[in-house]
């Protein structure tokens, strides 16, 4: 039986931790606001306000950047993407039209693109600033 490499364990742990964190952050920022807002002219908006989504993004920026800095690149990209996708699916699945699947897909694609971009930038910026490991006997 093959054992997982030691480098895979931190990646998996980071992925699971960030997925749980993204789900909790979704609940904190977006989970409590479930009803559209009716404007004075009769139109509806929402249920989320822009500041809620911005807060969600900024809250996840720190742990994604930390994971990318620690070189847990897979976890930094896939963890938040999985967590946000699962949270959106759970939050929106009571929609009887079935169109929630499109929204969930857009959350998945958007979070995958955003976490990939942040991870790539952080990894590129910190590549030269982190000390290189020394070879044995050097």
UniProtKB/TrEMBL annotation:
User: Signal sequence: where?
Assistant: 1-27
Keywords from UniProt, A to Z, are: Membrane, Signal, Transmembrane, Transmembrane helix
Q: Which residues cross the membrane?
A: 51-69, 76-93, 99-125
Q: What is this protein called?
A: Integral membrane protein
């Amino acid at each position: 039986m093959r054992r997982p490499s030691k480098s895979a364990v931190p990646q998996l742990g980071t992925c699971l931790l960030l997925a749980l964190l993204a789900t909790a952050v979704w609940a904190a920022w977006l989970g409590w606001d479930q009803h559209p807002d009716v404007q004075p002219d009769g139109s509806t908006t929402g249920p989320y306000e822009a500041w809620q989504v911005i807060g969600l993004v900024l809250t996840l920026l720190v742990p994604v950047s930390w994971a990318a800095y620690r070189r847990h690149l897979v976890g930094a990209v896939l963890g938040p993407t999985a967590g946000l996708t699962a949270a959106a699916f759970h939050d929106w699945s009571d929609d009887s039209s079935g169109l929630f699947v499109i929204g969930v897909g857009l959350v998945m694609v958007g979070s995958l693109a955003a976490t990939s971009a942040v991870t790539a930038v952080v990894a590129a910026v910190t590549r030269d600033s982190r000390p290189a490991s020394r070879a044995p006997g050097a």
